[in-house]
Amino acid sequence: MSLTRPIALNRETSHLYSGIVKAAHEVSLGFKTAGQIARIHVSEGDYVQQGQLLAELDDADYQLAVDALQIQYDQLKDEVERTKQLFNQKSVSANDFEKASAGLRQLGVQLQANRNKLDYTKLYAPTNGYIQTVNFSPAEMVDAGTALFTLLDVSRLEVEVSIPANEYLRRDQFTGFTCRAAGLKNGVQLRLGSITPKADGNQLYHLTLAFAGQPDRRLTAGMNVEVGITVADT
Domain Multidrug resistance protein MdtA-like barrel-sandwich hybrid spans what residues (predicted)? Predict the structure, then answer.
């Protein structure tokens, strides 16, 4: 914590503290289906963009299942088309035609389910962020839902700052929050997220501040910033 001399602002005082930018949300990422990891395309610390391919499972068995069902579906589709023609010619009953059509619809559902499983062998980034941890290696087996990566979601950044007890006691008089960082010309507006009601071992209280708008793209998790807390004078 670094406290500088208060700045008077028309019956308000601004106190400056050291803060740090943090990701407000961590995302555990895993495949929606089980299998053997074929490829991992990222490493810890990498920045990834939404939609970027992160890892792949061995999809050979899933592809075979889709191909087999596709053949069955195409064959049954031809049979249903012939049955439809016979039905229009009144050569088969409506019940027979409906049974054939229902069988085709059911097979279509199975085919789509297997296509989904094939798609699930690829894992994509759901948002922009940094890969914090990689928990497996290629050739290892993973179950559906097992966390392969931990992603720091940089679309939701926040600032953490610690304040002394005398400042905490004036928390009801806080009127505004800003942060500045090296390389940024103007301060960025913040809003209060939360304050811990208990001091730590150094008798400091921790504030979490959210960005009032979209944060500057140059602000990243782990960056040190200067936080200004404006307090109304009484």
Answer: 27-152
